[in-house]
From TrEMBL:
It is a multi-pass membrane protein. The gene is SLC25A29. One of its GO terms (molecular function) is high-affinity L-arginine transmembrane transporter activity. InterPro entries: MCP (IPR002067), MCP_dom_sf (IPR023395), MCP_transmembrane (IPR018108), Mitochondrial_Carrier (IPR050567). PANTHER family: MITOCHONDRIAL BASIC AMINO ACIDS TRANSPORTER, MITOCHONDRIAL BASIC AMINO ACIDS TRANSPORTER-RELATED. It comes from Araneus ventricosus. The keyword Metal-binding does not apply. Gene3D superfamilies: Mitochondrial carrier domain (1.50.40.10). This is Mitochondrial basic amino acids transporter. One of its GO terms (biological process) is mitochondrial L-ornithine transmembrane transport. It is found in: Mitochondrion inner membrane.
Length: 317
């Protein structure tokens, strides 16, 4: 269990490191004003950030998910693993895997909600420097020094309610997302495994990426609304939205259905390298520690086949 936890943490860190630039692009596309667009698309947003803010701009707010990753993985793996252990192998259906994943998503939302609020606000800092004709010493003015400073300022101004702004939307997003992710991953893994339960490592990476894409497509509109609610009022002009339903109505009224799919391209692009990095690190950590209770890499096989213990559910990070 300890090896699984550390492997998940290291794999998750690798995934955050690889995927965070595209997450920054996603957040900026989700939250930009449709009447005053700064970015034309994924590639334009990516190049604009590099040009105006250097490569560091792509990694703004990354310390927030990095710091909270251990707690999130502990919750997700703990809740999902314990629920699946309480279910007999005969009843280990996709429905149970979906419900276990959904339960894990609900519980971990209480950690990820403030973490993502800080991350999102950090990611948006400095993007309007081009639009404002201010003295050069004010163009790079920052509101928050780091994620902790962001959360402290939110607490001072709005209390605990401000720190957990968007929590309901996060729960509505993460419950089905984790359910789809775990159940689709287990289903696809069984499909690509041979009669002995052997899965080629590259196939497993592809399965993880595909499961991630499916989970994002299912809940993506809620992710857009969550981002908008969490940065509402950040510009100092007061809040635009009263809540989730009000945000959905106003977004649809001003932008139509396209409001709910902003940044989806960058999210899909991000899903594959993120999961590839995560699973690669998890595989090698499990191989190094040679944990027989979960996953082992058959070092005798040069093709790199991952052997899955059929009695224990495979877990993603």
């Amino acid at each position: 269990m300890a090896v699984d936890f550390y492997a998940g943490c290291l794999g998750g860190c690798a995934g955050v490191l690889v995927g965070h630039p595209f997450d920054t692009v996603k957040v900026r596309l989700q939250t930009q004003d449709s009447n005053n667009k700064i970015y034309r698309g994924t590639f334009h947003c990516l190049t604009t950030i590099i040009k105006q803010e250097s490569y560091q701009g792509l990694f703004k707010g990354m310390s927030s998910p990095m710091c909270g990753l251990a707690a999130v993985n502990a919750i997700v793996f703990g809740v999902y693993g314990n629920i699946m252990k309480s279910v007999s192998s005969e009843n280990s259906s996709l429905q149970n895997q979906f419900l276990a994943g959904s339960a894990a998503g609900i519980v971990q939302s209480f950690v990820t909600s403030p973490m993502e609020l800080a991350k999102t606000r950090m990611q948006l800092q400095g993007q309007d420097a081009r639009e404002k004709r201010t003295p050069f010493w004010q163009k790079n003015r920052i509101i928050y020094k780091n994620p902790l400073d962001c959360l402290l300022k939110m607490f001072r101004s709005e209390g605990l309610r401000g720190v957990y702004r968007g929590l309901a939307c996060t729960i509505l997003r993460d419950a089905p997302a984790f359910g789809v992710y775990f159940s689709s991953y287990e289903y696809l893994t069984e499909k690509v495994a041979d009669s002995k339960g052997n899965v080629n490592t590259f196939s497993l990476l592809f399965v993880g990426g595909l499961a991630g894409v499916w989970s994002w497509i299912v809940i993506y509109p809620l992710d857009v609304m969550k981002s908008r609610l969490q940065i509402d009022g950040m510009d100092g002009n007061g809040k635009k939205y009263k809540g989730l339903w009000d945000c959905m109505k106003k977004s649809y009224k001003t932008e139509g259905y396209r409001a709910f799919t902003k940044g989806l391209n960058s999210t899909i692009i991000r899903a594959f390298p993120t999961n590839a990095a995560t699973f690669s690190v998890v595989t090698w950590v499990c191989m190094i520690f040679d944990n027989p209770a979960n996953r082992k890499l058959d070092v005798q096989n040069p093709s790199g086949v991952l052997i899955l213990d059929q009695e224990i559910q495979t877990l993603t990070c």
